[in-house]
C-alpha cells in the first residue's frame, strides 16, 4: 500500500511538472497544408528581446521604419496602401511558386483578443478560416492546398505591374490589392544585419509572408507585447506548435 501511495505521489508530481510547461510544446503534427516555414518581416527598430528561437517555423527578417525612407521602394509605397508596420496587426501575403501574389489579408489584434475573451482557443479566430477584409473574400484554407500541397502557379494579372521609383498605375493599387502581381524583389535584413533578397529566401517555392511592426521601446521579454501574440497564433494554427510564453 505504501508503494502504491509513493507511486501515486510520483505521478502527481510528474504531472505537475509537465503542467507547468504546458505552454512550451506539445508533440503534435502540423497543419497538413502549411508551408515548411512562414516568412515574418518585422518593420521598425530591431529589438533584441524578441526571441526568434521561440518560433521554429517562422523565419525572421527586418526592415527600417517606413517613414525613414530607408526601406525598399516597393515596400515603402505598399505601406501607404496597407498598414504594414502596425505592431498590433499583420498583413499576410501568399506568394505562389511563380512569384505571383495569390492571396492577401489583414489581421487585427481583435483576432487574438477575441479568442482570449471567449473560448480560450486559437481556433475561435483563425487566419485559416476568417477572411476579414477585401480584396479576398475566401479563407486562406482554400488556398493552401493548391499552392503548398499541390504547388501550383498563381494566375498573373498582366495589368498589374510595378516599376522601381514610381507608384503603380493599375486600378487595384488604390486599395492596396496586389493579388495577381508578381511580387517585386526587395532586400530584407537578418537580425545580424545581413542583407538578403526576398526571392532568394523563397527560392522558387510558394511562401507565406507576414508583415508586422515592432516598437523599439517596448519590452517583449515578458511575451505580452504585439506582435508576439499574433506570431504565437500562426505557430499554433499552422504548425500545431505551442511556443513557450515566458
Q: Indicate the structural class.
A: alpha/beta
Strand content: 15-25%
What is the string of SSEs from the N terminus onward?
A: HEEHEEHHEEHEH
Q: Which value, in Å, is the CA radius of gyration? A: 20 Å
Helix residue percentage: 10-25%
> What form results from the Cα inertia axes?
globular
Average pLDDT, to the nearest integer?
Answer: 82
Give an account of the 3D structure:
The chain is α/β, with parallel strands linked by helices and 246 residues long. The chain has one domain (28-239). Helix content is 23%, strand content 15%. The chain contains six helices and seven strands; from the N terminus they run αββαββααββαβα. A five-stranded mixed sheet has the order 2-1-7-3-4. A hairpin with a 5-residue loop joins strand 3 (90-95) and strand 4 (101-107). The chain is globular and about 45 Å long. It starts with a helix and ends in a 7-residue tail after the last helix. The model is unreliable at 4-29 (pLDDT under 50).
Topology:
Elements: H1 2-20, E1 38-43, E2 58-63, H2 73-78, E3 90-95, E4 101-107, H3 109-117, H4 144-149, E5 187-189, E6 195-197, H5 198-202, E7 207-213, H6 228-239
Parallel strand pairs: 1-2, 1-7
Antiparallel strand pairs: 3-4, 3-7, 5-6
